[in-house]
Amino acid sequence: xxxxxxxxxxxxxxxxxxxxxxxxxxxxxxxxxxxxxxxxxxxxxxxxxxxxxxxxxxxxxxxxxxxxxxxxxxxxxxxxxxxxxxxxxxxxxxxxxxxxxxxxxxxxxxxxxxxxxxxxxxxxxxxxxxxxxxxxxxxxxxxxxxxxxxxxxxxxxxxxxxxxxxxxxxxxxxxxxxxxxxxxxxxxxxxxxxxxxxxxxxxxxxxxxxxxxxxxxxxxxxxxxxxxxxxxxxxxxxxxxxxxxxxxxxxxxxxxxxxxxxxxxxxxxxxxxxxxxxxxxxxxxxxxxxxxxxxxxxxxxxxxxxxxxxxxxxxxxxxxxxxxxxxxxxxxxxxxx
Length: 337
Fold this sequence. Notes:
Elements: E1 8-12, H1 18-21, H2 24-33, E2 35-42, H3 51-56, E3 59-62, H4 71-76, E4 82-85, H5 96-100, E5 104-107, H6 109-128, H7 131-141, H8 147-150, E6 159-163, H9 167-176, E7 182-186, H10 192-197, E8 201-202, H11 205-211, E9 214-217, H12 231-234, E10 242-245, H13 254-263, E11 267-270, E12 290-292, H14 304-320
Parallel strand pairs: 1-2, 1-3, 3-4, 4-5, 6-7, 6-9, 7-8, 9-10, 10-11, 11-12
Helix pairs in contact: 2-14, 6-9
């Protein structure tokens, strides 16, 4: 049943993100779908200037910079029935009090997965051509490589190992289909039959590391995955192998990774690290076999509008009395990002 009135909504995030998440056409659509003050963005739920709006709020539209949603939020917004998150994971955002109170939570994580998968595909293709190594050498020699120097590169038959059939992992598997790769997958929640449907061969983690030329991490940051790639497992990757991490730095033992990269045995594309950012003295900034980027794989710039559009559509469903398409289920939180 549609609500008798538009749902009363409040923004809760760092206001710097608002214009990119909700450019004028989306903001107009949002204000049609909800009773919303587009100029009010809450950063502190105890702020007296926000008290009246929060007391009436039925929906919180959250994003990066939103404070943790706990019992104090329920006290400030007793009528709250939905949280629509215009970003990725809600793991660090939503507290137990909101789950226990039955507040419905939705996330634009599926939209955020798309640019991460695209970034990863680009890095796989570039790594297969040893693009980063050739760039470094060309800078120094100003000469083209010989046929002998290029004999081992190329993307035909390259073995790509994907760790984690997450939203990003599944989208990456889709994007890999048109290429002449052999795709391997490790995920403890996926069967061999499902992996085959996704276009990959299911392997144990150790076997995937042994048999992959390029390894890409897409597992969630949960206790079970903390430093899942320790020194022993990194040693399983073949000499000259490439490790790509767009997930979380905590999944890899940073000291063991640094040792492998300083030795030159492995190559890496790292969009995330532990710590983040790396200290100024880290050798990884200067190694020719390491391509570092400052956590840019996820939604940035005009990609943020996609996340805002997902939230607007969810808010329209709230007003129409329909179910949410991107609802986050509390029971899944133990195994997703």
